[in-house]
Design brief:
With about 280 residues, this protein is mainly α.
Length: about 280
């Protein structure tokens, strides 16, 4: 009887998590997947930490809520901008300076809160706490690039990323509350440590990093052709033949750059078509 139960539990576990385990056994995938989750800890922890720390030092929930709201609005504005920059320039090229901005802002914010500086200074610092690289999106981009052509595994990998994201939120909020009640400095220090460790795990994994639009343009012959790469990606959404696009490009660019620009257009077109096939 006991053996049957154990076999049943093992079978259920295999059905639920076997596919995820198979993905994580692919070389290098566990490193960037887990690293992205660890680096994402500011998402659930920063707002809660600001709220508890400000209320503790200033005794003002209204100020705490206003600062948290400003940080959330700044995050909503900054996230798509950072995503576009990552697509254009590359994951490491954008993430490293963004992390530096966040670390400086976090140190400044916790120092100012503990020193009980005037509230307007806090409002000037808090928007910079939105300087968080789009780790989840970058991880998903690596999965789709790595599993190109295998729709089933790609969907499973995106599901795994969603599971990791939910775990991050479930763990992050109560953890932030506990640490912030003990010490706001402790909570911010722990969050910063997560950012550094997660970023090192993710960004030092170079074999799975997808090419940026600038890299595609450079490989096509000129880094200045990056806008033509974007045009190639856009062309998949418009009902015009490829040769018509290339004829227009040939008429619009200097004669010496026609071949490079057409190659950049094809690179962008191929990239967008591959991405579309993964979503299908």
């Amino acid at each position: 009887m006991t053996n049957n139960v154990l076999v049943g539990v093992k079978d259920i576990g295999q059905r639920l998590f076997g596919g995820y385990a198979e993905l994580l056994r692919i070389p290098h995938t566990a490193r960037f997947s887990v690293g992205s989750v660890i680096a994402c800890m500011p998402f659930p922890m920063v707002g809660m930490t600001i709220t508890i720390s400000v209320q503790h030092y200033y005794g003002n929930y209204s100020l705490a809520g206003a600062l948290t709201a400003v940080q959330a609005i700044a995050l909503a504005v900054a996230s798509p901008v950072l995503g576009k920059l990552v697509d254009k320039f590359g994951q490491r090229q954008v993430s490293i300076p963004t992390i530096i901005v966040w670390m400086v802002a976090a140190i400044a914010l916790v120092s100012c809160i503990t020193a009980r500086v005037p509230s307007w200074i806090l409002f000037c610092i808090v928007p910079f706490m939105a300087a968080i690289p789009p780790w989840g999106a970058m991880s998903r981009q690596r999965w789709t690039t790595l599993l190109k052509g295998d729709a089933e595994k790609t969907n499973r990998a995106l599901s795994l990323s969603g599971v990791f994201d939910e775990c991050m939120w479930v763990i992050g909020n109560p953890l932030a509350s506990t640490l912030a009640v003990i010490s706001g400095l402790l909570a911010f220090s722990f969050t910063g440590m997560c950012v550094v460790i997660g970023a090192l795990m993710f960004l030092t994994e170079l074999t799975t990093e997808p090419k940026s639009q600038t890299q595609l343009a450079r490989e096509a012959g000129s880094a200045k052709s990056v806008n033509v790469v974007l045009l190639g990606a856009l062309a998949t959404r418009l009902d015009f033949a490829q040769d018509a696009w290339e004829r227009v490009i040939a008429r619009r660019v200097p004669p010496k750059t026609v071949e490079a620009n057409q190659a950049a257009f094809r690179a962008g077109l191929a990239f967008a078509q591959d991405a579309a096939s993964q979503r299908a």
